[in-house]
UniProtKB/TrEMBL annotation:
It comes from the Eukaryota. It comes from Lipomyces tetrasporus. Keywords: Glutamine amidotransferase, Hydrolase, Lyase. GO terms for biological process: pyridoxal phosphate biosynthetic process; pyridoxine metabolic process. GO terms for cellular component: cytosol; glutaminase complex. It catalyses: L-glutamine + H2O = L-glutamate + NH4(+). One of its GO terms (molecular function) is lyase activity. L-glutamine binds at G64, E65, S66, R127, I158, R159. Pfam families: SNO. The active site is at C97 (nucleophile), H227 (charge relay system), E229 (charge relay system). This is glutaminase. Belongs to the glutaminase PdxT/SNO family. The lineage of its organism: Eukaryota, Fungi, Dikarya, Ascomycota, Saccharomycotina.
Length: 251
C-alpha cells in the first residue's frame, strides 16, 4: 500500500529557505523508526510559483528580508495565492523571522508603501525590535514541548521582530496607529475567533527585557521570531511536522 504523500513547501523567493529544507529533511531522516514522522510519506519542495504553491499541503516562510520577499511575491503573482493558502484554505504554515512579519495582520516599524503583508495571524509584530544586524544575539529559549528539557533550545535572533500586540479582542480595529502596515481585510476574517497561543517569551538574557513574545500559534499558523534553521538542532522542525502538519492533515 502506498502511503499518501504530504507535500511540504518552502517559500524560496529570498532568505534562508535552503537551511529550512535541510532541517526538514534531517528531522524526517532522524525520526524514530516506526513513529508517525518516520512512516509518513513527505515530499519537500521549493515554492516559487502559484502552481508549486497549489501543490503544497503546508508551507514554511523563511527568514530573510520581509520587504524583499513581499516584493518578489507580488511580482511573481504569489501574494494573493499566499493569502488564500493561509487565510482561506488554512493550510499549516510556519513563518520564521521575516516569515512571522509577513504572516502578521499588522507590522509596526514597517516600510510604508514597500511592504505588503500576507496576514492571518491576529497580531501586530514590530520589525527589527532588537535593533540592527550588529545587535543579533543567541539565547537558550525554554521550549519544553520539543522534548529533552535538560537540553535547551538555542534560538538565534537576527534583526528579529517580536509580537508586540495580540489583536483578537474588542480593541482589535479601534486602534489606528501611525507607522503600522496592515494586511488587507478578507471576508473569512469575520468568522475567525481562533485563540492565539503564546508559545514562548524571551527569558532574561544579555540585558534584554524579559517577556517579549517570540513564538505564537493561531490554529494552523505558527510564527517564531528566531531562526531555528541556523543551529544544528532539528527538534522544532520535527515538532512542527508532527504537531502542525501531520495532525492537521488527518483532520
Ligand atoms: N532575520 C530576519 O528574517 C530579519 C527580518 C527583517 N528584519 C525584516 O524586516 O524582514
Amino acid at each position: 500500500m502506498t502511503r499518501p504523500e504530504i507535500t511540504v513547501g518552502i517559500l524560496a523567493l529570498q532568505g534562508a529557505f535552503l537551511e529550512h529544507k535541510s532541517h526538514l529533511q534531517k528531522a524526517i531522516g532522524r525520526a524514530s523508526p516506526g513513529s508517525s514522522l518516520d512512516t509518513a510519506n513527505f515530499e519537500i519542495i521549493e515554492v516559487r510559483t502559484p502552481e508549486q504553491l497549489a501543490s503544497a499541503d503546508s508551507l514554511v516562510i523563511p527568514g530573510g528580508e520581509s520587504t524583499a520577499i513581499s516584493l518578489i511575491a507580488e511580482r511573481t503573482g504569489l501574494l494573493e495565492p499566499l493569502r488564500q493558502f493561509v487565510r482561506v484554505d488554512r493550510k499549516p504554515v510556519w513563518g520564521t523571522c521575516a516569515g512571522l512579519i509577513l504572516l502578521s495582520d499588522e507590522a509596526s516599524k514597517a516600510k510604508k508603501g514597500g511592504q505588503e503583508l500576507i496576514g492571518g495571524l491576529h497580531v501586530r509584530c514590530q520589525r527589527n525590535h532588537f535593533g540592527r544586524q550588529a545587535e543579533s544575539f543567541e539565547c537558550n529559549l525554554p521550549l519544553p514541548f520539543v522534548g529533552e528539557e535538560d537540553h535547551p533550545f538555542k534560538a538565534v535572533f537576527i534583526r528579529a521582530p517580536i509580537v508586540e500586540k495580540i489583536l483578537i479582542g474588542a480593541d482589535a480595529t479601534a486602534d489606528v496607529t501611525e507607522g503600522v502596515v496592515r494586511a488587507p481585510k478578507m471576508d473569512c476574517d469575520l468568522f475567525d475567533r481562533t485563540e492565539i497561543e503564546v508559545i514562548s517569551s524571551l527569558p532574561q538574557t544579555q540585558g534584554k527585557e524579559a517577556g517579549d513574545i517570540v513564538a505564537v500559534r493561531q490554529g494552523n499558523i505558527f510564527g517564531t521570531s528566531f531562526h531555528p534553521e541556523l543551529t544544528p538542532d532539528v527538534r522544532l522542525h520535527a515538532w512542527w511536522l508532527q504537531e502542525c502538519v501531520l495532525s492537521r492533515s488527518k483532520e
